[in-house]
Design goal:
The chain has 76 residues and is mainly alpha-helical. It is built from five helices and no strands. It is globular and about 35 Å long.
């Protein structure tokens, strides 16, 4: 299994592009604190996909073990 980027690296990438994580959530019509939830392991596929697209990483590489290469959620 691939190693996922550290959650702080993901947040830093979002802050570099959007100024704040909150602004990223607002611009993508996401629930407040949804990024925090995803980075803590909660299942929020729409937020995870938005994060992956925003920072230019494949979803399954950004969150290995949670998504397949075609974007399907892995059920445990």
């Amino acid at each position: 299994m691939a190693t996922a980027p550290h959650p702080e690296d993901i947040k830093a990438a979002l802050r570099k592009r959007y100024g704040t994580v909150t602004e990223f959530e607002r611009l993508h019509s996401l629930s407040p604190r949804s990024v925090k939830d995803v980075l803590r392991g909660r299942s929020r596929p729409s937020t995870a996909k938005a994060i992956a697209k925003a920072i230019g990483m494949d979803l399954h590489k950004l969150f290995p073990g949670r998504y397949t290469p075609n974007g399907d959620t892995i059920i445990r």
